Amino acid sequence: MSQKINVRDIVFPALFAAIISVLGFVSINVPFSPVPITGQTLGIMLAGCILTTRQAASSVAVFLGLGIIGVPVFAGGTSGPSVLAGPRGGYLIGFLVGAVVISMLKGKGTNIVRLAAANTIGGIIAVYILGILWLSHAKGISLIAALTAGALPFIPGDIFKVAVASLVAVAVNKQLNRLNLR
Fold first, then answer.
1. Angle at which helices 155-178 and 40-50 pack, to 10 degrees?
2. Closest to 68 in 3D by CA, of 60, 80, 78
3. Closest CA to 56 of 107, 97, 22
């Protein structure tokens, strides 16, 4: 059972890998956490909301692969396997899971409530679960300490990103549907 690959299956993931990478330069280190505030979660939400599940997974896999081999695409222009093994690694792996979850839950991608719910479940909850678990392990701290340092302070910004990604995705998805680019 083979599936036909078209140009969109290559171009869209590459475009979103680039978007996620560029949003990593929007990075603010905070004194209370080894995890910076970044724009990358917005990119993950957009990828999940706009792309097919396979395309969303491919875009994040390309992003992660580029970062692992040394292209400075992670938050603040960092890269390498050490970033993945460090306190941020769970969030980065969570990006992959989150984008897939969002894409699976989004439906046709034109219902803002459904997109907001998908972004909250995949873009916040799934990413935070993996991130908090890995942060706790990597730093040798309790889950409560990891939750306090690696999630709670970021929730308001991530809720804002859910709103932005959902609004943008509704408009983009309507245009993609109108242009028959699905």
1. 30
2. 80
3. 97
pTM of the model: 0.95
Q: Which domain holds residue 137?
A: 8-169
Q: Provide the residue type at 182 as one letter.
A: R
Give the CA distances from residue 91 to residues 11, 53, 110, 158, in Å, rounded to whole numbers and listed in that order: 25, 19, 27, 13
Residue 32 lies in a domain: yes
- Rounded to whole angstroms, the Cα distance separating 55 from 12 reads 7
Residue 129 lies in a domain: yes
pLDDT digits (tens, 9 = 90+) for 2-30: 677 789 999 999 999 999 999 999 899 98
User: Residue 142 maps to which CATH number?
Assistant: 1.10.1760.20
pLDDT tens sequence across 124-153: 999 999 999 999 999 999 999 999 999 999
Please state the domain count of the chain.
1
Kind of pairing between the strands at 27-28 and 37-38: antiparallel
Amino acid at 94: G
